[in-house]
Specification:
Oligomer: single chain
Number of strands: 8
Radius of gyration: 18 Å
Strand content: 25-35%
Largest sheet: 3 strands, antiparallel
Mean pLDDT: 85
Structural class: alpha+beta
Shape: globular
Low-confidence stretches: none
């Protein structure tokens, strides 16, 4: 969920500059940290606690052909009052978090403020991995795996309406980039999407 995404990013933001993400450290997360990333100021302590508990149960699945491997995001959680929690990340995920810290969080804190769709944040991540190119093609099969949509929105029109259109709208409204999502067909069937984007400041008249 969007709140769980903000929890992860807030925890990574606590890592001091120049240090690697560690599984020996309990990283603090407070509700005010989530607000900095665009979280709802009116979110209840129960919502915060529920999101932490859900995240504790979440796993990441690495897929390689027919083989897959899975591991948890966090291995330990501690609550300190209604609006403070501590995370200990799982060891297998550390290389991925270190890369995320280096490549993404430096501009993420300001860019996603205002976004409420978890799909918008994920599409934005896909864009930023190709930000020097300004274009990226993603197959619908891969997109469904990345977004955990295997059995959800099986009809293209529904996937476009509830996932892609919403992501495109929020990214264009809140981020410093302008995005257009195009569909690509193989025969008569949509098989992939093409993300085309550029910085809004590039459009401004000098």
């Amino acid at each position: 969920t969007t709140l769980e995404q903000r929890l992860i990013l807030s925890a990574i933001a606590q890592v001091p500059k120049g240090e690697e993400v560690s599984d020996d450290v309990l990283y603090p997360i407070a509700t005010e940290d989530l607000v900095k990333l665009g979280g709802d100021k009116k979110a209840s302590h129960k919502e915060f606690k529920d999101a932490v508990n859900r995240l504790y149960e979440r796993s990441i699945v690495l897929r390689n052909g027919d083989e897959s491997d899975s591991f948890r995001w966090i291995q330990e959680k501690i609550f300190n009052g209604p609006s403070m929690a501590f995370f200990r990340f799982s060891k297998p995920i550390l290389p991925f978090l270190s890369n995320l810290k280096t490549e993404f969080t430096k501009y993420l804190e300001s860019d996603i403020v205002g976004m409420s769709s978890p799909y918008a944040i994920r599409v934005y991540e896909l864009m930023m991995q190709y930000r020097s190119i300004g274009k990226r093609e993603v197959s619908l099969e891969d997109l469904r795996w990345m977004f955990q949509l295997q059995n959800k929105y099986p009809v293209w029109a529904d996937l476009k309406r509830w996932v892609l259109n919403q992501a495109e709208k929020e990214i264009n409204e809140y981020s410093p980039y302008q995005l257009t999502i195009e569909s690509k067909k193989t025969g008569r069937k949509v098989t992939s999407i093409i993300l085309k984007f550029h910085a809004k400041k590039a459009l401004r008249t000098p």
